[in-house]
Amino acid sequence: MKKQIEQKAAEIEKLIQEYLPKEEGYEKVIYEAMNYTMLAGGKRIRPMLMQETYRMFGGTSKVIEPFMAAIEMIHTYSLIHDDLPALDNDDYRRGRKTAHVVFGEDMAILAGDALLNYAFEVASRTFLEYPECSELGRAFMVLAKKPGVSGMIGGQVVDVALTGQEVSPEEMMYIYRCKTGALIEASMMIGAILAGADEEQVSLVEKVAANIGLAFQIQDDILDIVSDSQTLGKPVGSDAKNHKYTYATVYGITAAKAKVEELTREAVAILEKLPADNPFLPELLNYLVQREK
């Protein structure tokens, strides 16, 4: 399974590189900063989930590819900003120095902004290249909304506002659902939408993704406690350093692991209700939430 995922990730890596900007012109440094973080590696989970959901509903067109690149750009911009001194203040990401360390805080802020804007520029090409696709508007709306103030950014806002404070279970789940889950939801929903899934099916896919997003974040909390920097490619103990309450610190490792398993089982059960099939997708979901890095 690991080898299969790595092979798919390598294919997605090549696809993403085709959409990256050329490092030239007066503004060359911003392209260098954007590409530096985009090419820092990573599991390419979100575009992979998008692609596999698209395939599950019978999608075969290349219309999905710009959206795959766009969702990874949005994810990467969020990492650049997360690592800034004003937020998590991390110097390493994916085993190498973060953008603000290499290019300076000012350029890292601009690189994050640029990647977010460039993501929509890339995705918008589909309106010209695939005018026959009637679902582009719905897909683009999901791409715009899920990372926004009612999604990823909203989760980040609440996370920052409550740092150092005791959070309720409801507040914690809101942060997790938005900050981490929103892009996973966007990925799978866009895959389903562009493949022609109906509203009920897209809603079920959103529920699957919501569970996986929660499980993924709780597993991340666990790894922040039990893993090491060399394995993760980034500092461990960041939650404790930043005085953040997490599922693992509040309820303990054993309860956190049980919650990951529960959420994953529920997600796979919902997935099996859908009138579509992709045997690889349930295996991928299980692999993601059981990862060790």
Write a concise synopsis of the structure shown.
This protein has 16 helices and two strands. The chain has helices at 2-19, 28-38, 45-56, 64-82, 99-103, 105-124, 126-129, 136-145, 152-161, 169-194, 199-226, 229-232, 238-241, 247-251, 253-271, 280-289, and strands at residues 92-93, 96-97. It is globular and about 50 Å long.
List the helices and strands and how they pair.
Elements: H1 2-19, H2 28-38, H3 45-56, H4 64-82, E1 92-93, E2 96-97, H5 99-103, H6 105-124, H7 126-129, H8 136-145, H9 152-161, H10 169-194, H11 199-226, H12 229-232, H13 238-241, H14 247-251, H15 253-271, H16 280-289
Antiparallel strand pairs: 1-2
Key terms for this structure?
mainly alpha, globular, 293 residues, two-stranded antiparallel sheet
Task: Explain this structure.
With 293 residues, this protein is mainly alpha-helical. 70% of the residues lie in helices and 1% in strands. The protein is built from 16 helices and two strands. A two-stranded antiparallel sheet has the order 1-2. A hairpin with a 2-residue loop joins strand 1 and strand 2 (96-97). Helix 4 runs antiparallel to helix 6 and helix 10 (169-194) crosses helix 11 (199-226). The chain is globular.
